[in-house]
Amino acid sequence: VLVEVLVAVVAVVLVDVLVVVVEVVAVVVVVVVVLVLVVVEVVVVAVLAALAVVLVLVEVLVAVVAVVLVDVLVVVVEVVAVVVVVVVLVLVVLDVVVVVVLA
């Protein structure tokens, strides 16, 4: 009888220990999974923030390049206009010289 009681007590204790071990392992696994998910979320947020900063920088760079290109085009148009005026004046002077010479 004592052996049966002893075996029963040992069996109950072993089952209780196994239940505690399983619960601890389950909690540890859940905590680790949650921590991994939090780290992944932080990394994703950081990457997205970096991409947003890069996109803003690219947008600013494109705006600056566009402004510079417009300024350059304005200068080119002004230079072409001045050249055209000079050419017209030279042609007028040549026309006057030809008329005077022929007269």
Describe the structure.
- 98% of the residues lie in helices and 0% in strands.
- It contains 1 helix and no strands.
- It is rod-shaped.
Q: What proportion of the residues form beta strands (DSSP E)?
A: under 5%
Rg over alpha carbons:
44 Å
Low-confidence segments: none
Contiguous helical run count: 1
Tell me the span between the first and last alpha carbons.
151 Å
Strand tally = 0
Question: What is the overall shape?
Answer: rod-shaped
Largest sheet: none
Mean pLDDT: 95
Return the structural class. mainly alpha
The helix content, as a percent range, equals over 70%
**What is the string of SSEs from the N terminus onward?**
H
Provide a short characterization of the protein structure.
Helix content is 98%, strand content 0%. It is an all-alpha fold.
Supply the key terms.
103 residues, mainly alpha, 98% helix, 0% strand, rod-shaped
Topology:
Elements: H1 2-102
